[in-house]
Design goal:
about 600 residues; alpha+beta; Beta-galactosidase, Chain A, domain 5; Glycosyltransferase; 2 domains; 3-stranded antiparallel beta sheet; 16 helices; about 30% helix; about 20% strand; globular
């Protein structure tokens, strides 16, 4: 069985990524891209579905892990009765073909080691042909070929590759895994020591660009590194997570493929990159978004592939038993064609934020925005599937209407502030019409709270966006009442659930954990309300949830203390970055500040400034 989700660390090369367990087993790796079929899929099944174990043959008395400072190079210390070793894992920034390097370093005494390599292409379904080559093996099947290089003697065992060896103090033993297309010639063996040094230099140079100087600098930098690791370098697209089908409830069916790029995340992600000082990455993300949504506004997806692909057909892999029996295992995501009003608000908001930050927009961006506004005007009164991609009947979700308002509001501001041409008087009237409807139909005066959808009495964590996008100021009694209702009805052990799950609404059985980014939004709202001590308490609680190498999943289960959902989750780390920057600007917090003093949609600056 795979390890606990929180027991994994991430390594990657900005094209793909691997999950490494505390026991030294790489249980998830897709090559050559994040969304390629996995060659190690034990995370969603068992060792026979593919993994690469490298660790002590005897039980470790103590295991400690860390990333080298400012890098994504993982170091795992093992102490046994015989001695101590460190296993170094990394994927170097890619020049051509993907490469994974592992090195065992003897620290004390002698340690007997065990290496177990199980290559299974296509998500654990294909056993490759394997043959020996000088200093290693080559495994091939279909379009895939893996080269495995080491000086350690290897042997075959039950359709797997095994090595037993001993490492003494001062000794260094290297293993290198290289993928290449089967039809191309084999790449040459690389120098593992030099690869690790080169990887360290690359990451430290990148980390050195971080401009955040607040009280949570190391926490913010680790989340920025994670965000960079989840970036597909060729296009600038940032995927939601490195995994698919990790469950939102153990044994449940809420298991989705998150190896895609969500428009929903756009503003928050851009803001996090700008706050960290990574304008290059922010510009690349903005460019990816513009290319992805180009075309007819009625055909805009809510999510896209790493290069902007639109057809993300959902398939169930019935040969995989799922993480701890959580089935089905899915690839692709059927929600990609859902109708969600909020995506128009996200696109308009991210382009407005980019202009405020001084990022030049594509010359066609304003034409695209105007076309989106024209389409939005014809559809904003229709029901949709909402931000959480429900699989029940479409509804008039309040958050969706608020984001429709946001889209029109940002268009008005763009004309006012940047002197671009547009029917601004008409847009002002439309903005007012949407605002009036939301305040009339999306607000329950008896509860003094906005509601999940028109006619509902339930609340939804997405309503925390109301003050964050400037729909109403935090001081408005209706905002205060909504925040209090969310705290009263959606808090579980101090953390926020997205909504109260119900098959009637979302079309799915079972429950889920608390959604971590929603708790970051709560901290942001509390800070806007002037409740800074409460905001910091929520934030510190969230920081305490991270695993030993600083990573967060999508969700958390308070009763068991376990991570849930896909991992690591970009949205959770984006929330951490933005909330840290927001709280750093709060009264009484001493810091060197963030990279810009410019207001964004999710800063702590007064809403009057956002509307200026």
């Amino acid at each position: 069985m795979a390890g606990k989700i929180e027991d994994y660390a991430l390594i990657g090369d900005c094209h793909s990524a691997a999950l490494v367990g505390r026991d030294g087993s790489i249980d998830w790796l897709c090559l050559p891209r994040f969304d390629s079929p996995a060659c190690f899929a034990a995370l969603l099944g068992a060792p026979e579905h593919g993994r690469w174990l490298l660790g002590p043959a005897e039980e470790s008395r103590h295991v400690a892990r860390r990333y080298r400072e400012g890098t994504l190079i993982l170091e795992t210390d093992h102490e046994t009765d015989g001695g101590a070793v460190t296993v170094i894992d990394c994927m170097p920034p890619r020049s051509k073909e993907p490469e994974l390097v592992r090195m065992v370093v003897g620290r004390r005494g002698q340690v007997r080691m065990r290496m177990h390599l199980v290559i299974r292409f296509d998500y654990g379904s294909i056993v490759p042909w394997v043959r020996r080559i000088p200093c290693g093996i080559r495994a091939v099947a279909g379009p895939d070929s893996l080269l495995f290089h080491t000086d350690v003697p290897l042997r075959g065992e039950n359709m797997t590759t095994v090595a037993d060896f001993t490492v003494s103090e001062g000794q260094r033993v290297a293993f290198v895994l290289l993928w290449h297309p089967y039809h191309e010639s084999c790449p040459e063996r690389t120098d593992a020591e030099e690869t690790i040094r080169r990887t360290e230099r690359w990451w430290q140079k990148w980390s050195g660009r971080c401009t955040y100087r607040g009280p949570w600098r190391e926490d913010v930098l680790r989340s920025l590194i994670t965000l960079k690791a989840l970036t597909y370098a060729p296009t600038g697209g940032i995927l939601a997570s490195a995994t698919t089908s990790l469950p939102e409830r153990i044994g449940g069916v809420r298991n989705w493929d998150y190896r895609y790029c969500w428009v929903r995340d756009a503003t928050f992600t851009l803001n996090a990159l700008i706050e960290g000082g990574y304008l290059e990455e922010a510009k690349a993300w903005q460019g990816w978004l513009l290319r992805a949504v180009a075309g007819t506004p009625s055909q805009v997806n809510i999510m896209y592939g790493l290069a902007g692909e639109r057809r993300l057909h959902e398939v169930e892999l019935d040969w995989l038993p799922g993480y701890e029996g959580s089935r089905p295992v899915r690839t692709g995501n059927a929600a990609h064609k859902q109708f969600q009003l909020d995506v128009f608000g996200e696109v308009m908001d991210v382009l407005h934020l980019a202009r405020r930050a001084g990022l030049a927009c594509d010359e066609n961006a304003w034409r695209l925005q105007q076309a989106m506004l024209e389409h939005l005007e014809s559809v904003w009164q229709e029901p949709d599937e909402g931000i959480w991609e429900i699989r029940g009947a479409p509804r008039h979700f309040t958050h969706s209407k608020i984001m429709a308002w946001t889209a029109v509001d940002r268009a008005v501001k763009t004309v006012e502030q940047y002197r671009l041409e547009g029917p601004v008087d008409h847009w002002r009237r439309l903005r007012g019409e949407i605002h009036d409807q939301v305040c009339r139909d999306g607000f329950d005066p008896n509860r003094n709270s906005f509601v999940q959808y028109y006619g509902s009495r339930a609340v939804d964590a997405s309503l925390l966006m109301i003050p964050l996008v400037g729909f109403l100021p935090a001081s408005d009694p209706r905002v205060c009442g909504t925040v209090e209702a969310i705290q009263r009805e959606l808090l579980r052990d101090g953390l926020v659930s997205r909504y109260q799950t119900s098959p009637e609404v979302d079309g799915l059985p079972g429950e889920e954990g608390v959604f971590l980014v929603c708790s970051f939004w709560l901290a942001d709202c509390l800070a806007r309300l002037g409740r800074h001590d409460e905001a910091q308490k929520v934030f510190q609680r969230l920081l305490s949830l991270r695993n030993d190498v600083g990573l967060l999943s999508e969700e958390f289960d308070p009763p068991t203390g376990r991570f849930l959902g896909n991992f690591p989750q970009a949205f959770s780390h984006v929330g951490l970055i933005n909330t840290a920057c927001n709280l750093s600007r709060a009264p009484g917090v001493e810091c060197g500040g963030c990279s810009t003093g410019k207001a964004s949609s999710i800063s702590l600056r007064p809403v009057q400034e956002l509307q200026a």
